[in-house]
Structures are given as structure tokens and as C-alpha cells.
Amino acid sequence: MLQGIYAISDEILTPYQEIFAMLQKAIEGGISIFQFRDKSHQDNQIESLVAELMDYCEQEQILFVLNDRIELAMKLQTKGLHIGKKQEVHPYSLEELYMIRKSYGGILGISCYGDLQLAQNAKEIGADYIAFGSCFASPTKTQAKVISLDLFQKIQGIKKCAIGGINQQNIHQLQNVDMVACISSIWKGDIIKNIDNLKRNWKNL
To answer: Mind telling me which residue stretches traverse the membrane in this protein (predicted)?
Structure first.
């Protein structure tokens, strides 16, 4: 389950009135995982949408992941939860990660940016996967620091996801990861064709 093309929603690129139609095309294209990310609404404003997306992904047999909203993920019992930094500067402490892992029974992924120690902490508390990024200059997070791709070689024994600036031209550089997470390179233009090209250029899937 934790392998392949990992699509992440975007409030601008996947507007909510179109998100189901766009997600359907992404599934037809061959994504394995869909993460819903919303940075501007309260939990109660998006709860019904999250529940519908979760059910739809389950019907289509792809993994649904909710970004950052720990309480909502536990309330709806989403299959997956992905957490990033609680603030732009300070990552979650090891103790906080332990508590999240203890509370959450589904698949847990943790953004580690370029922080190998945070990745080791995530592995220690039993996270299911870690994400390193930005792997390349990102059009959606222009301030994100670009990491060394060597980081993926420095941690073993946990599933690894690459994120940030990944497109059809550079995805071939990510042979040592299990998942590649994409936003604009999926949703801009022909979704099915975009995903097909990503898969072919990555591992000729």
C-alpha cells in the first residue's frame, strides 16, 4: 500500500467543487495514495467532505490520508494520517510523536523535511513512513529548502516518501524511495497523462 504515486490535494489546484472529478481521474491514472490537505478551514467546515473523500478512496481501494488534523483523523478513523511541523521552526518532540502514535491506530506518516534526527525519531516511535523534502525547487512551497537526495540512503527500515518539486523531468532521480508525492505535476493539465508520464519516467511502471 505504501508505494507508488502519492497525490496531494491543493485548495487552489483541486477546488472542492471539482475535487471528486479530479480525484477520479487521478485514480484512473494510477495513483496509490491520496492525501487531503487543507490549511484554511476549521475541522467542522470540512468534516463531511473528508468523510466523503475517505469513503470514496476506500471504494476505489486507494489509501486516504488526512494531513495534520489529528483530532479529526481519530474522530473519522481515517486509514492514514500525515503530520508535519506544528510550527515553521520547531518540529514535534519525540515525546509528542510517541503520544500521537499511541493515540492513532492507522497508518502514520511524518514529514521530516531535511532532518535526519527527526526521521530517526519517527522510526523509533513506529511511524509507517517518513517524507523528506523539498527534493527540488517547489512551485507550491517556494520558501522550502531543497534537501540533499543522499538523505534517503541514510535511513533504512522504514518506508520513504519524496516530496517537493517533483515532475516528469526529475522523478528519475528518485529510484531509492517507495513513494513520490506530487501536487502541481499531477493536477495541472491532463491528470491521467501526467500520472502516466510520472510513472513511466520514475520506474517505468
So the answer is: none
| DSSP bridge pairs for 159 | 129
Q: Contact, 12 vs 178, CB < 8 A?
A: no
Which residue carries 500520472 as its cell? 195
Tell me the whole-structure pTM to 2 decimals: 0.94
Residue 124's contacts (CB-CB under 8 Å, 6 or more residues apart) are 94
Query: What contacts 163, CB < 8 A, 6 or more positions away?
Result: 6, 8, 111, 131, 132, 133, 134, 135, 180, 181, 182
Domains of the chain: 4-201 (3.20.20.70)
- Separation of alpha carbons 149 and 48, rounded Å: 38
pLDDT tens-digit map of 163-179? 999 999 999 999 999 99
What distance in Å separates the CA atoms of residue 135 and residue 144, rounded to the nearest whole number?
9
What's the pLDDT score for residue 112? 93
pLDDT of residue 89 exceeding 80, the answer is no
Burial (Cβ within 10 Å: 0-12, 13-18, ≥19) of residue 174: buried
pLDDT tens figures, 125-143: 999 999 999 999 877 666 7
pLDDT band at 10 (very low <50, low <70, confident <90, very high): very high
pLDDT of residue 122: 94
Q: How far apart are CA 92 and CA 100, in angstroms?
A: 10
